[in-house]
Structures are given as structure tokens and as C-alpha cells.
Design brief:
Number of helices of chain A: 11
Radius of gyration of chain A: 24 Å
Structural class of chain B: alpha+beta
Order of helices and strands of chain B: HEHEEEEEEEEEEHH
Strand order of the largest sheet of chain A: 1-2-3-4-5-6-7
Shape of chain A: globular
Number of strands of chain A: 13
Largest sheet of chain A: 7 strands, mixed
Radius of gyration of chain B: 26 Å
Structural class of chain A: alpha/beta
Number of strands of chain B: 11
Distance between the termini of chain B: 104 Å
Helix content of chain A: 25-40%
Distance between the termini of chain A: 89 Å
Strand content of chain B: 15-25%
Strand content of chain A: 15-25%
Number of helices of chain B: 4
Largest sheet of chain B: 9 strands, mixed, barrel
Helix content of chain B: 10-25%
Oligomer: heterodimer
Chain lengths: ~375, ~300
């Protein structure tokens, strides 16, 4: 009898608990026309707090980075400088970029709060400080991705116990310096695994990963990373939703390389329905995107570039080109104080003028 | 403990448990704090309002009644309809901010949480390309600024004195009129659904200081259409329409193009077709009369 009594009490308590649980805020019901499954109770905004026409400051470092479960094993981390992508699985963690140096602790916390598995690889999409500033401290929290090289005994060999940083060889060239000269970045931030081929592949966490070099775009060492199973592309600074594309001819960048890189991304993406969803794209800066966003951006860059190219062919001066306002349509969406529409126009003008005066066949 | 005491205790604990459960269930069905109006049902937009925006589409260069700024005007002037033939654009649907989006929702259904039966929102099904939308009414916040933007945007709804009010953010760059006029991804749209019997008067208020000199207001009417039948819809499929054009080809009108067809065809002074806040108000008629007088006789 006593057992029956306690059993009834337990059943009552369980029913009560189930009711309470049912009322607790649950995960959002996924709908195909809005797939984001970020925790809006943590990162969201009330509609009355969203002001029309105000561009968010995506580069501002957040005390609490925004983490968006993107798709499959991939998460996007925003508010740490450049966007960071995390691939998390049983074998460990891959980070694409490490954000700004000042945000490195937050990046470390972001991945360590998601898993107990070790960080194994870091992939740098360029050498920029806002994408690689955390390389040194973040890598020190991990273990070598390649398991150590040689040495026998199955140990980690001569490799230090830090995560392996992968980048294009141009990134290493930017960060390091010839013997006797001052390097721009400390040794701990340098990539240990570089390549100069069009593509490098990894297979990690049951995920085929393509690391693709985009020549002469933002710089000469840009990479885009395609997580094929999760169906997510990390674009680096070839694509940013909050600004005109920044390219630096002094570091091997150029406007045509940007356009080629955007077309490459569009070629790789497959939308799910009505030109949205499907393959998701994490930009170097700004919001999570799908193919339609990249297409709009590619069209913008192409139109402005072709307008300026037309004027360069007519031998118009930079002042005349500026006066024609070839980026007017887009200035308020993509212009920002540190990279205005006028700066973008001047960069394209100089790039195209240089190309026009270059001997055919001797261009980039 | 005697048998009677045990039975009493068991009954008491069961009653307590049922009381708690009952209270919880009742709390879920609490009366709404404001007067609600239900907008669910099958609807048909009344297309004689703003008729050119529906089947035929507006003329190029017709920005009349739109408070667009110089940025939006330049983009519209360079917009070439061929851009919709890009393989990567062929399947895109109407954005929510498109005037009379998708001819208005053809069917509005309640979204009910299956366990608690609480209302979570409305699903607005469209016909053209199934430009469906979800309007959440359960008080959830909008996503962060890092979240994906979509053609439908992210919408939440509340009732304000019998009017259902939808607020939408997280829109894509998208046209508000089918001749290239657009709004930015930072636009905010508020829609007011006023139901009177078998009709709903919808007022759309689009605020986007990046592309407009002041918020744009539009209205349209939905009429109850119980025989409406929203089916799977014409889901789009991308095919090759450009032939020998290279990948990444972007059609657009050259910088400096002025789309004058609309003004010429209807003998309207060109300036009056160009949109802008100053042309929305009655005072502009004085200026318009002056412009009409200045036109050559053949153009009047």
C-alpha cells in the first residue's frame, strides 16, 4: 500500500513537471521561409527597438558574441571583429578565422561552451587583423590538427601542442619577414600549414571540406571554405554585406578578382526554394546570407565596375568619374566612414587604369 | 497509518495535482488583453486599385506617388528587366515589401501549437511563386542583426484596438514596384489589417530612410473568397534564357539613362514622374500646372 501511495505521488509530480515543461519556451518551430534557428531570446530584438534605415555596426565587438547555428555542424560567430565560423563534431573543432585580437577570449569561450572536444584546425581566409588577430591565443587552446609530424612512437612529434593554422602561402608571407627583418605578426600567429595550389581539401568530422584560393581578390591570399556536408560556405572578405568590397592592390587584390570570387560562390550555392535558403554563406562581415544576397552583391559590384570601366575607356579623369556618381545607387547601403563610396570608386578607377596601361598579357 | 488515512492522502494528492494541472491549462487559455479580430480565411485582392501594379506591371520610369530619394531613383533608372532572366534570379519570388505583395495573401491560416493549442501566429500563403509569410503572434523577439534576411522578412503581429498590426524586418533588398524601385535590407514595414465583415482594408507603411525621403504608404483591399483554392502554386524552375551570355553577366541600363516612356506616353511632365516626397502632396498641383503650361502643345 505504501508503494502505491508513493507511486501516485510520483505520478502527480511527473504530470505537474510535464505541464511546466510544456509551458517553458521551446525551440522555434522551423519554417521554410525563415530558417534561422538562433536563440532569439538571447540575441534577438523587439520590433520597436529596430529603427528603420539604421545599419547595424557589425564590426563592433560584443561582450556576448552572437552565435547562430547555421546548418549541420557549422555555427557562425558574429560580434568578434570579422565573422568566425565553427565546425564542431566528434573529432574536434575547426575555426575559420579567429576574429580580432581583443575578442580572442570570447572566441575561445564560444567554442568551448559548445563542446568538450579539442580545437584542431584554424583556417585563415586572409591575413587581415580582424580575421586573424586571435590566431596566437586561440591556437594555444587546441591540439595539432595533423597529429604531429613524424618522430615515431605515435606521439605528437616535434609539433607544439597548438591547433594547426592553415592559410594560403601569401598569408604567411604577409605575417612573417625575411631573416633579420621585423615580422608584422608574432610567430604564434603564423600559419604552419600553407599551400599555393588552387585548392586544398580536408576530411574532418565526417565532413568534406574544400579550401579554395580566390586569386587577386581582397588580397592575393584569400580563401573561401566550403563545408560540403553541412552545405555552408565561409566567404572571408570576398563578400561582406555591410560594405563595398575592399581590395588592396598593394597586397595583390583587384576588383575583377572580387567579381570572379563572387561568381565562384554563386556557382557553388544551391538555393532551396524561391532563391533563398539552401546553401548558406557566412560573409567576412555582416549577416548570414544565401545565394540571393550574394547575387545582389555581385550585381552591385559588377554594375559599378562596368560603369567606371566605361569612363576609363573614355579617358575620363578620376574627378570626372567621381562627379558622375557611379556608386550613388548603393552608397547608403554599403558606404561606411572607413570605406566610403568615393574610396571604392577611386580604388576601382586606379585598378582599371593600371590594367588599361598594362601590356596585354602582362596583367595580373 | 490507517487504510482510511491512506486513501484520504491519495485523494488529496491527486486533487492537488489535478488542481495544479487545471490551473496551468486555464492559464494557457487566458482571455486576450485586447480586442482581437481574426483575419484567417481565403481572400482575393481587389485588383482595380493600383491596377498597373498587378497583371500588366508598371511603366519604366513611373515613380509617381513614391517618396524615393536620388539613390533609389538611380538604381531604378538602371534596372533592366532582363536581370530576372539571370539563372540565379529566375526563381526569386516577390519580396514582402512589393506593393500589394503577391496580390495580397490568398489564404491566411492560424498556426496552432499542437500540444497547448495556443495560437502562435498566422501563415499568409501567396499564389505567385508561393511567396508565403509567417507572422508570429506569440510575442517572440525579432532575430539579431546577424540573422539571415529573406524575401518574406521576419514578421510579428499584435492587435491594437481591433486592428491586426504586422511589423516586418530582416527583408532582402527588394523591389517595391516592378520597375526597379527598391528598398534596402534595413527597411521596416508595418501593415495594418482592418477587417470589416467580409473585407480587409490593408494599409502598408514602409519606412526606409536609405532609399526614401519619407515613409511610403499604400493601401489595398482583400475580399473574402471562400471558394479560393491556394494549391501548391507555380514553383519556379530555372532554365537557360541567356544563351551565349557568359556566367555572371549583369544587364543594366547605362549610367545617366532617363526612362521617359511613361512621361511621353501619358503626356505628363517628366519631373512629375520622378517620385520624391514633395510630389506626394496636394501643394504639388500648383507646380504641376506650371509644368503643364510649359510643355509644348503637342505634349499636352
Amino acid at each position: 500500500m505504501k508503494k502505491t501511495y508513493w507511486a501516485l505521488i510520483a505520478v502527480s509530480a511527473a504530470v505537474f513537471a510535464v505541464q511546466l515543461y510544456a509551458q517553458a519556451p521551446t525551440a522555434q518551430i522551423p519554417v521554410y521561409n525563415f530558417r534561422s534557428n538562433e536563440d532569439t531570446r538571447k540575441f534577438g530584438m523587439m520590433p520597436e527597438d529596430i529603427r528603420a534605415g539604421v545599419k547595424p555596426d557589425y564590426s563592433r565587438l560584443r561582450d556576448q558574441p552572437v552565435i547562430i547555428p547555421t546548418r549541420g555542424q557549422v555555427h557562425m560567430v558574429g560580434g568578434v571583429g570579422g565573422n568566425v565560423a565553427m565546425l564542431i563534431g566528434d573529432e574536434g573543432v575547426i575555426l575559420v578565422d579567429t576574429g580580432a585580437e581583443a575578442a580572442s577570449e570570447r572566441v575561445i569561450r564560444a567554442y568551448q561552451e559548445m563542446t568538450t572536444r579539442p580545437l584542431r584546425w584554424i583556417i585563415n581566409t586572409s591575413a587581415d587583423d580582424d580575421h586573424t588577430g586571435g590566431n596566437d591565443p586561440v591556437a594555444k587552446t587546441g591540439l595539432p590538427g595533423n597529429g604531429g609530424g613524424g618522430g615515431g612512437g605515435g606521439g605528437r612529434g616535434g609539433n607544439p601542442p597548438i591547433a594547426t593554422i592553415v592559410a594560403h602561402e601569401a598569408v604567411l608571407n604577409r605575417m612573417s619577414a625575411p631573416t633579420g627583418q621585423q615580422a608584422s605578426r608574432p610567430v604564434g600567429a603564423w600559419p604552419q600549414s600553407t599551400f599555393f595550389t588552387p585548392k586544398k581539401t580536408l576530411y574532418f568530422n565526417d565532413e568534406p571540406i574544400e579550401i579554395i584560393h580566390v586569386p587577386s581578390a581582397h588580397t592575393d591570399g584569400d580563401l573561401i571554405v566550403h563545408f560540403r556536408r553541412s552545405d555552408v560556405i565561409v566567404a572571408g572578405d570576398v563578400y561582406a554585406t555591410d560594405r563595398f568590397p575592399q581590395f588592396d592592390p598593394a597586397r595583390g587584390g583587384g576588383i575583377q578578382g572580387i567579381i570572379d570570387g563572387l561568381n565562384r560562390i554563386i556557382d557553388m550555392t544551391v538555393p532551396a526554394f524561391n532563391m533563398q535558403g539552401g546553401t548558406l554563406v557566412i560573409p567576412g562581415h555582416g549577416r548570414l546570407s544565401n545565394e540571393a544576397d550574394v547575387v545582389e552583391y555581385r550585381d552591385m559590384v559588377t554594375i559599378i565596375k562596368e560603369r567606371i570601366q566605361d569612363m576609363v575607356q573614355k579617358r575620363m579623369t578620376l574627378a570626372q568619374v567621381r562627379a558622375a556618381r557611379p556608386a550613388l545607387d548603393y552608397e547608403r547601403i554599403y558606404g561606411m566612414p572607413s570605406w566610403t563610396g568615393d574610396m571604392f570608386i577611386e580604388a576601382i578607377y586606379n585598378d582599371l587604369s593600371r590594367s588599361a596601361t598594362t601590356t596585354p598579357g602582362a596583367g595580373r | 497509518m490507517t487504510h482510511t488515512t491512506r486513501v484520504r492522502l491519495i485523494v488529496l494528492s491527486l486533487a492537488l495535482g489535478l488542481g495544479i494541472v487545471g490551473t496551468q491549462l486555464m492559464a494557457q487559455n487566458a482571455p486576450p488583453p485586447v480586442q482581437r479580430v481574426d483575419i484567417s480565411g481565403d481572400w482575393q485582392v481587389v485588383t482595380h486599385e493600383d491596377q498597373p501594379n498587378y497583371a500588366p506591371g508598371p511603366e519604366l520610369g513611373d515613380y509617381a506617388g513614391m517618396p524615393i530619394n536620388e539613390n533609389a531613383r538611380q538604381k531604378a533608372e538602371s534596372w533592366d528587366a532582363q536581370v530576372l532572366s539571370q539563372p540565379e534570379r529566375q526563381t526569386q519570388t516577390h519580396p514582402a515589401q512589393y506593393v500589394g505583395n503577391n496580390r495580397g495573401p490568398a489564404r491566411i491560416t492560424k498556426i496552432i501549437e499542437p500540444v497547448t493549442q495556443a495560437m502562435l501566429g498566422y501563415a499568409l500563403a501567396g499564389g505567385f511563386g508561393r511567396a508565403d509569410r509567417i507572422v508570429w503572434t506569440d510575442g517572440r523577439p525579432h532575430p539579431s542583426e546577424f540573422s539571415e534576411h529573406t524575401w518574406s522578412g521576419f514578421s510579428t503581429g499584435t492587435w491594437q484596438d481591433g486592428t491586426f498590426v504586422i511589423t516586418t524586418t530582416h527583408l532582402k533588398i527588394g523591389t517595391t514596384r516592378r520597375n526597379g524601385v527598391y528598398t534596402s535590407p534595413y527597411a521596416k514595414m508595418v501593415e495594418y489589417y482592418n477587417r470589416t465583415g467580409t473585407e480587409i482594408q490593408v494599409m502598408v507603411w514602409i519606412d526606409d530612410p536609405l532609399t526614401q525621403e519619407e515613409p511610403m504608404v499604400r493601401t489595398y483591399t482583400l475580399r473574402w473568397n471562400p471558394a479560393g483554392n491556394t494549391a501548391t502554386g507555380n514553383v519556379f524552375e530555372s532554365v537557360d534564357e541567356f544563351g551565349d551570355k557568359p556566367a555572371g553577366w549583369v544587364p543594366f541600363w547605362p549610367l545617366g539613362t532617363k526612362q521617359r516612356e511613361y512621361a511621353d506616353r501619358f503626356r505628363i511632365p517628366f519631373e512629375a514622374t520622378q517620385g520624391g516626397a514633395d510630389k506626394l502632396y496636394p501643394e504639388y498641383q500648383i507646380r504641376l500646372q506650371e509644368l503643364m503650361r510649359q510643355q509644348p502643345p503637342a505634349a499636352r
